[in-house]
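Blinded run. Sample ID left blank on purpose so nobody reads anything into the name before looking at the predicted structure. Input follows.
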Amino acid sequence: MNSLPNFLIVGASKSGTSSLYHYLKQHPDIYLSDKQKEGRYFSQMPGNFKGPGDENITATITKDLESYKALFQTCSEEKAVGDISPEYLYFHEKSIPLIQKDLGPDVKIVLILRSPIDRAYSGYMHFKRDKRETLSFEEGMSMEEERSSEDWIWAWQYRNSGLYHKQVKAYLDKFENVKVIVFDDFENDAKAVLKELCIFLDVDASFGFNTEYKYNVSGNPKSKMLYSIESSRGLINFAKKIIPDKVVKAVRNKITGEKQMVKTEMNEATRKELIEFYRADILELQNLIQQDLSHWLK
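Blinded prediction complete.
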C-alpha cells in the first residue's frame, strides 16, 4: 500500500522523539517507517554538510516525494501513519508549504517541546557522546554562527534552535489539528501523554504501552568500548549484512539507552545566562500555547 503520513511529529529535537517513535510503533493502529525514524523530506535540506559526522545525516535525507512514499510502502490497514522528523520545526519556513502541498491541510501536527536550556545542553552532550564535539558547551555556542556559515548541520545550533515561539506559531497559524506536548509531562508520565496522543490520532487509547526504556539518551557512556562499537558506521553496516536489522537496532538502542549513560550538569553561570537569553521567547510561547512554562525559567 502506497501511503503518505496523516500525522507528523515535527519537533523539537532532544525532546524524547526517539522514545516516542519506539513507543508508538508498539500500537497496532499506528504505522511508523521501519526504514528510518526521520523521513527528512519536508525540511528540504541540501545535504553535503561539513561538520564532524554530518555525512551520516546527509545519507538519510529523503530528497524526492517518491523516495519519501517508499518509506511507508509496507503500511497496510493502520489508521495513523506518521513521520517523526524534529528538524521540521526548525525549518518551518521550508517545511510548512511543502507539508500543506503534499499532505493537505488536515494533516495532524504534534509538537513536543523541552526547556530550550536543557535541550541545548542535551544536544551538546549528544555530540560529545558521539565524539563529534571537541569544544566545551560554552565554546560550542560561541561557534554557532561560524559553523552555520561553514555548512554544519542545523543541530550544531545548540542555542539558536531553541527559540521556539516563532516556529510553533507558524504551525499553529497554518494548521487546524495541532497538539503541543510539554516534555516534562512526557518525562513524568509517558503513559498519560501517550493516551492523549492516541485520542488525538483517533486510535485505541486503551492500548498498554511499554515505556520502561528510554531511547537515544545523551550523556557520557559508561562503557567507552561498547559505545565505540555502536558508533562505528563500518561495523554497523557489516553487522546488518549478517544479522537481522531488528537485532542490530535492538543492540544499538540498549547501548544508547538511559542505563548506559552518565549525566553531567551544566555550569550554573551558563544556565543563568541561557535563562535570560530565552526568557522573552519562553514567555511569548507560554502565552501562545496557554501552558505554564515558568519552571523553564528556574
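Unblinding after everyone has recorded impressions. The CA atoms of residues 221 and 261 lie 5 Å apart.
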